[in-house]
Design goal:
The structure holds 2 protein chains of 2 kinds. Chain A is mainly alpha-helical. Chain A is about 75% helix and about 0% strand. Chain A contains 12 helices and 2 strands; from the N terminus they run H-E-E-H-H-H-H-H-H-H-H-H-H-H. Chain A has a two-stranded antiparallel ribbon. The chains are: A mainly alpha, B mainly alpha.
């Protein structure tokens, strides 16, 4: 009887303290995130004119416009192309670097510091310096190409190349981040596994494919999922590097770039909301597919 | 075998060195260009790598167009506010999720997970309209607004609390601590490394964020560095020494802080990423 009383008193106090501790976060999440999702959905049924012309209900108008809007589908395709370059390369290069750093290497922390450096630079500054490096007339990269006898490339104004140039900036920026995560994952693989493999006569390449890769697959899965989501939201580098008059813009602009343009430059928040709903749908779809595929290649334990 | 191993080791250093050059050249080119004149920067024949005289003209010119002291101040205020809010709210919520059992917890936690899965652009228009309705556009609160709470940080701290042994808390309760005291004096201090990781993550994100400041603060004296840099480019696109000088001034404080605390930075990112 007495015991029951203490248990229920404890339950009560856990309930009160629990919700007290959750209060700021829950209130914030509801106001900042949950309500806005419904507002964005609601907004996507309206046509918004610039400067207080008010909302006009148009039902699914924005969505039917979106389905027929070639630039939106082109932007979705651009975003995919960007992700297809950025994600695999940034992961592969980072993994190679992490494996090297995990071996017997002098100056490990110096190398790490260098590769991580772009992560602490402002993306606006990063984009500006790359734009300068890519400059077709005066840029360092074209100068070096000319030096070794190659002709100049219009890095950010050639519609067939610009998305790769932007993706290179993305790869350069994020390699250090991926590398640090892989390195942390590699450190958890017991050394004896490699020693045993060595005794069995397995070389470096074999060790990589039979020990390192399977054991690092959970980290790999996490990095892939977050990188894909990040790449699907690319905006900063395109916004900073591609001028509105750039002939390659149509073939480079991402979904988020279009969202920003419609919502905040042209003031059509209704159409912007419809675009961001498309983004949400695409990201959720990709994430679900990745979660389903995970069983095929991710090795827990 | 020995020769093979030596070759492998040389190859590894070679790969690391080439990669490092690629990582560093953009920064070096930023520095070198910032000290050149516009005509030096665009001279092709002969191509100039080092400025003939290290001039600070580009810095002076860009500082007359942008109030850097103000921008540093705005950015610092934003970072401090975001870090304090994130660490405070996430520590409390993380404790509740990680250690307490009460009705409604799972539903509340599913909201946290949901927020983490949804792309953040979906919140921006309504958040912008809210800040506008409150009359707080172009204020420091407007910049802080989306960072008042953090789903990611809550998740991170929850993981940290779940990793602590239950015996500690039992002992504290037996000593007569109530839940609040056990949290404050026993449990919270043990999650310090996760708090530091969240603080670093939040600070970096606040410093690098571009779209929200562009949307919410359009006046120069309330902008953070990132948005001011973006606006600058529109004003004199072709003067690269000035653009590079401004980029350099924007990056230097964070780079110096990073070089001093690089261990904490890298470990913080590794734990905050790895824990997810």
């Amino acid at each position: 009887m007495n015991r029951e009383k203490t248990v229920s008193r404890r339950e009560k106090s856990e309930f009160l303290w629990g919700w007290l501790f959750l209060l700021p976060t829950m209130a914030g999440l509801i106001i900042l995130n949950i309500i806005p999702i419904f507002q964005t959905i609601y907004q996507s049924f309206f046509k918004t004119g610039a400067f207080g012309k008010g909302n006009v209900f148009i039902g699914l108008g924005n969505y039917s416009k979106l389905l027929q809007d070639g630039t939106v589908w082109q932007a979705l395709w651009n975003t995919f192309k960007y992700a297809l370059v950025e994600v695999p390369f940034s992961i592969a290069i980072a993994l190679v670097l992490a494996v090297i750093l995990n071996g017997k290497i002098k100056g490990r922390s110096i190398w790490r510091t260098i590769y991580f450096l772009p992560m602490v630079a402002a993306p606006a500054a990063v984009a500006m310096v790359w734009r300068w490096l890519y400059n077709s007339e005066f840029g360092l990269i074209n100068h070096l190409l000319n030096r070794i006898g190659l002709s100049s490339v219009n890095w950010i104004s050639d519609p067939g190349i610009a998305y790769i140039s932007v993706a290179i900036v993305g790869i350069w920026s994020v390699i250090g981040y991926n590398m640090v995560l892989f390195f942390a994952g590699l450190q958890e693989i017991p050394r004896d596994y490699y020693e045993a493999a060595e005794i069995d006569g397995a070389g470096g390449v074999k060790q990589f494919f039979y020990i390192t890769l399977p054991l690092i697959s959970p980290t790999m899965f996490f990095v892939t999922v977050t990188r894909v989501i990040g790449a699907m939201q690319v905006f900063d580098s395109i916004y900073m590097m591609m001028e509105k008059s750039n002939p390659a813009l149509v073939k480079t602009q991402s979904l988020v770039y279009l969202f920003y343009k419609y919502s905040f430059v042209e003031g059509n928040k209704g159409y912007g909301s419809a675009i961001v709903m498309l983004l949400l749908l695409v990201i959720l779809l990709i994430t679900v597919i990745q979660l389903l595929c995970q069983k095929k290649w991710v090795n827990y334990n | 075998m020995d020769k093979n191993r030596k070759f492998k080791s040389v190859l590894q250093y070679f790969v690391l060195a080439v990669g490092s050059v690629v990582m560093l050249v953009p920064f070096l080119w930023m520095i070198l260009t910032a000290f050149k004149t516009a005509s030096e920067a665009t001279q092709m024949n002969p191509f100039i790598i080092f400025p003939s005289v290290w001039r600070k003209d580009a810095f002076l010119s860009v500082m007359s167009k942008m109030n850097f002291l103000r921008l540093y101040y705005n950015t610092l205020v934003l970072i401090i506010e975001r870090v304090v809010c994130a660490v405070l709210t996430a520590t409390m919520a993380g404790y509740a999720f990680g250690r307490l059992h009460f009705k409604g917890k799972n539903l509340a936690f599913s909201l946290v997970l949901f927020q983490m899965m949804v792309p953040s652009q979906i919140f921006i228009i309504p958040q912008y309209l809210m800040v506008g309705k409150l009359g707080l556009l172009n204020t420091s609160f407007g910049l802080l607004f989306p960072g008042l709470v953090t789903a990611f940080g809550t998740f991170l701290l929850r993981q940290a609390y779940m990793g602590l042994p239950a015996s500690l808390e039992e002992a504290a309760r037996l000593d007569g601590c109530n839940i609040g005291q056990a949290f404050l004096y026993v449990m919270a201090p043990l999650t310090k490394s996760s708090m530091v990781a969240l603080g670093i993550f939040t600070a970096l994100f606040a410093f690098k964020e571009l779209m929200w400041p562009l949307v919410v603060n359009t006046e120069q004296n309330t902008m953070p560095l990132s948005a001011a840099l973006a606006k600058l480019q529109g004003q004199f696109v072709t003067n690269y020494p000035e653009l590079m000088a401004a980029s350099l001034l924007a990056c230097i404080p964070m780079v110096i802080i990073y070089l001093i605390f690089q261990k904490q930075f890298i470990e913080g990112i590794a734990t905050s990423g790895g824990k997810l």
